[in-house]
Structures are given as C-alpha cells and as structure tokens.
C-alpha cells in the first residue's frame, strides 16, 4: 500500500488515503478531471452520502481504468453495514459482459488496527448515461435539436435487458436502475450496469421489500405504494431510462414535494400509463388508488401524447416509433403481473429483435434451439442410469 493525496473536486479540498501500489493517477480522464489538478494527485468523480468515488488507473500489464468506492465506516450504522456486505457479496458473484467488472476490495485501518475506510474497486467506463443524456439533449427545443438514432436506443434497451436477464436468472433485483448507475463507453456504444449498492437477492419471505430502492423517479408503482415486488421492478425502471433518451422525464411530476413525492409519482404514473378500476388492480394495490390518492374514475393511457417520439429519426425497418411505443407500454404495465421479464422482452419485442440478434452473434451466444440440441448431445453421451440398481441401493440404506 502507498499513501497518496486525493482532490475532492466538488468541495475543492485535498485529503490523504492509502491505495495499492499498482494504483496510478488517471491523467487521461478528460470528462471528470479538472485541468488544474496536480499531476501527482488522484481526483474524485462523485461524492455521495455514504461514500465517494475516486478515479484511478491500474499500473499492471493489462492496465485499465477503475473507480474506487471509498466508504467512511466511522459514519456507518447497522443498515449501512448490511448494505455494504450485500454489495460486496453480490459484486464477487456477478460476472457478465454488460455489468462493470469487479476487481477487489481493500481497507484502511487506524492505529488500533480497526477498519475506518473500505474500498470497492470496479471497472470504469467513459461516462455515466446521465452525462450522455445531458450532452445529446442540450439543444432540445431549438432549431438545432438532435434526432435520436433508433439503433442506439434499441441497443441501450438490449444491453440493459441482457444484464437484467442474467440478474433475474440468479434472483437478484437491482432496485436502482437509473442513468447515473449505467456506464457508457463511446467505442461501440457499450453499456454496463455500474453500481449494486441497492441490490438484493429475491427472498421468498419478501424481506427484500423492507427497504426500497434509491431513486423514487425510477421506481415501479408497486414499490412506491409499499407493496410486495419482484425482479420486474427493474423492467419498469429500464423503460423510464430508455424514454429519457428522448430528453424527457415522462413520469416525473411537476412541482412535486419531498414530503409527497410517492403520491405525486403515483398520480403522474396513472395519468400517463392509465388504470382501470378492477379486482385485478386491487389484488396488487388494495385500495391505494381510491383511498390514498382519491382517484374515482378510470384513466386512459396517454403514451402517444406524453412521449416525444418526434425526436426519433425516421423509421428503419422494424425500428419504428410504433414498435418503440409498443415496447415501453408493456414494460410500463401498472399491473406487475402483466409486465414481462427481461428474457421475454428480448425474445418478443419487435423493437429489440435486430439488435438482440446482433449482440448474440458478436458474442457467439447460441440460440435456444442450438442450446437444446447441445443438451441432447450431452445426454446422449452420458451412460444410462440403472434404475434397478439405484432402487436396490436405496432399499439397503
């Protein structure tokens, strides 16, 4: 370990910390690093409530840009420790091409050998999706408004959904899908999930529903209403993130208050997505819409009116405005039982089929039929099971 100095670029002060010897300053960071930061000093990318994010470069043959999430353990309570433990365990488990790579953990100790700072090291991409959105939407509403490329929008959905398909297969709920937690590499428009601080394993006892996800603006209605939820809340958040590429936060209420944000969000969601007064909704939401929100009349969906599809470029084959709307409508089903999982979105949504095949071909992913035939081949090569001998052994035991 070596002692270095880090510049907090948000609050403009320098502090010491210890990092591994193979950590180097990332002088090539033209997105986050200030020009006047001394060359020998590291720099922060973000400062959050429980941790800060430090940029670095690996001084190893393979090289690579990384971020170090630095947690101040002195400020931690019991819930913070539980959350950190889950993030460490999940980070070590999760390996997927559309999820930022986990490298290692390390920590700093005080004179009594007690940990005071804890670091999680992950792969760093060029920038987060919120910064990309800010760049492409800066001229929205003017004569120089930038049309969005259907191919990039479809590629965004496909890559996030592939990561979610992997997580759902392992019963993991991300719970904080938002532009700030999605990384982008300019080369090839590579998309990866970059933060798992709010993630949980899905529990049959519904323990995962006791603590909600982080950002209300991307939460599914069942989470906002305090009802049981599952991995499909990430499908909802992905739809909201995708729509935001068009330069609008379609489900964000105007003039909302921190004290009433959940109710304000639910009212806005129902205005855009519509709802029908029926037993099906009451099975999920009880009487939340009627009693707590004061809604009496059903509402028709307003997707076409609220989503600015005019900012999309002309249609390209199956990449059409109508197919895009069909996709977000089903992903934004207020009834979570009608909301598809990630695999179904990828397999059935016309807006995603071309890009889904493209990414499978690039990474040599076999089709379901090819996977089945490979299974048949393995079964054919296995020696036959002698059921009679197995029964005799079981009887003797």
UniProtKB/TrEMBL annotation:
Lineage of the organism: Eukaryota, Metazoa, Ecdysozoa, Nematoda, Chromadorea
InterPro entries: Kinase-like_dom_sf, Prot_kinase_dom
Molecular functions (GO terms): ATP binding; protein serine/threonine kinase activity
Gene Ontology CC: cytoplasm; nucleus
Organism: Mesorhabditis belari
Protein's recorded name: Protein kinase domain-containing protein
PROSITE patterns linked to this entry: PROTEIN_KINASE_DOM (PS50011)
Gene3D superfamilies on file: Phosphorylase Kinase, domain 1 (3.30.200.20), Transferase(Phosphotransferase) domain 1 (1.10.510.10)
Residue ranges of domain Protein kinase in the record: 39-352
GO biological process: mitotic DNA damage checkpoint signaling
């Amino acid at each position: 370990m070596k002692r270095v100095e880090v510049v907090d670029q948000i609050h403009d002060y320098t502090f010491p910390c210890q990092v591994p010897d193979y950590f180097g300053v990332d002088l090539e960071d033209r997105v986050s690093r200030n020009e006047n930061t001394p060359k020998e000093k590291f720099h922060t990318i973000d400062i959050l409530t429980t941790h800060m994010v430090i940029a670095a470069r690996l001084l190893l043959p393979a090289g690579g840009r990384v971020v170090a999430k630095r947690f101040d353990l002195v400020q931690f309570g019991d819930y913070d420790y539980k959350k950190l433990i889950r993030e460490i365990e999940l980070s070590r488990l999760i390996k997927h091409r559309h999820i930022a790579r986990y490298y290692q953990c390390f920590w700093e100790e005080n004179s009594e050998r007690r940990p005071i700072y804890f670091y999680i090291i992950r792969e760093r991409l060029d920038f987060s999706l919120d910064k990309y959105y800010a760049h492409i939407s800066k001229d929205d509403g003017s004569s120089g408004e930038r049309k969005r490329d259907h191919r990039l929008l479809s590629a965004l959905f496909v890559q996030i959904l592939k990561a979610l398909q992997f997580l759902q297969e392992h019963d993991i709920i991300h719970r904080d899908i938002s532009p700030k937690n999605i990384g982008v590499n300019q080369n090839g428009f590579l998309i990866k999930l970059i933060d798992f601080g709010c993630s949980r394993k899905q529990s049959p006892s519904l323990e995962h529903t006791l603590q909600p996800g982080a950002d209300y603006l991307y939460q599914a209605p069942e989470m906002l209403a305090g009802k049981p939820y599952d991995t499909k809340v990430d499908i909802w958040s992905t739809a909201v993130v995708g729509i935001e590429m068009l330069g609008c936060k379609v489900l964000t209420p105007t003039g909302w208050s921190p004290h009433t944000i959940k109710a304000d969000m639910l009212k806005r969601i129902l205005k855009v997505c519509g709802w029908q007064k029926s037993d099906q909704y009451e099975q999920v939401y009880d009487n939340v819409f009627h009693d707590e929100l004061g809604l009496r009349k059903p509402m028709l969906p307003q997707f076409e009116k609220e989503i600015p599809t005019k900012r999309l470029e002309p249609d390209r084959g199956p990449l059409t405005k109508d197919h895009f709307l069909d996709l977000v409508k089903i992903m934004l089903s207020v009834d979570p039982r009608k909301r598809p999982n990630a695999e179904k979105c990828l397999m059935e949504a016309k807006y995603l089929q071309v890009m889904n095949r493209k990414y499978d071909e690039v990474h040599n992913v076999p089709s379901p039929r090819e996977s089945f035939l490979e299974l048949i081949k393995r079964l054919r090569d296995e020696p036959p099971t002698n059921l009679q001998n197995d029964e005799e052994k079981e009887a003797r035991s």
